[in-house]
Amino acid sequence: MLKIGVVLGSVREGRNGLSVANWTIEKSKEFSNADEVSFELVDLADYNLPFLGVTPTAEQAIAIGSWSEKIASFDGYIFITAEYNHGIAGAFKNALDFLKPEVKNKAVAFIGYGGLGAARAIESMRMVSGELALATTQRNVNFSLITDFENMSTFAPADFHEGELKELLQQLAAWSTALKTIR
Q1: Which of 6, 31, 10, 33 minimizes the C-alpha distance to 21?
Q2: Mean pLDDT taken over the chain
Q3: 3, 40 contact by CB (below 8 A)
Q4: How many Å separate Cα 65 from the centre of its chain?
Q5: What region holds the NADPH-dependent FMN reductase-like domain (predicted)?
Q6: What is the homologous superfamily of the domain 2-180 according to CATH?
Q7: Quick one: which of 67, 143, 176, 183 could link to 148 by a disulfide (CB 3.0–4.6 Å)?
Q8: Are 121 and 83 in contact (CB under 8 A)?
Q9: Mind spelling out the 3-state secondary structure of 73-135?
């Protein structure tokens, strides 16, 4: 069985990402065989990670270990990312910088939300993922704050995104299965 971590990368108060992550998990379970793949939400806000390079407090050292252990437990990932100032959220990039062997030779897919569906943040994440030895899917899902959210805050995705998610899941499952053979 494949274990897929749905990683919510925004820690911002009032973030839209939690509704996107919940939709992703709900639809992914609906579109996948429960005997073949499982999905689990990993909320970055649950980990009090220090800035990389700063001496961590005892509590932060535990958070680093918990983050590493949780991420290592998956065969693949769906990264849920917002776009801030044309890029990835700083907290998410910092969290990824704590990882390398935990994600090596695994697969990742991206779901973004923002003014342009987080397209620029996802492109940035593709470069970071390459350096982490993560294989990225071709398909991603991009939610626009203008058309997929009412008043830019209540998640109301267009129906066509379900087809995109199905394709993303097929690619993620194929890559995750293939890469499991070399780990």
Answers
A1: 6
A2: 97
A3: yes
A4: 19
A5: 3-141
A6: Flavodoxin domain (3.40.50.360)
A7: 143
A8: yes
A9: CCCEEEEEEECECCECCHHHHHHHHCCCCCCCCEEEEEEEEECCCCHHHHHHHHHHHHHCCEE
Give me 158's structure tokens: 């267009």
Domain ranges of the chain: 2-180
**Beta-carbon contacts of residue 137 (< 8 Å; ≥ 6 apart):** 107, 108, 109, 110, 168, 171, 172, 175
Other beta carbons less than 10 A from residue 26's beta carbon:
11
User: What is the pLDDT at residue 61?
Assistant: 98
Q: Which residues pair with 107 in a beta bridge?
A: 76, 135
**Residue 81 and residue 78: Cα distance in Å, rounded?**
9
Number of neighbours of residue 82 by Cβ within 10 angstroms: 23
Dump pLDDT digits (tens) for 65-83.
999 999 999 999 999 999 9
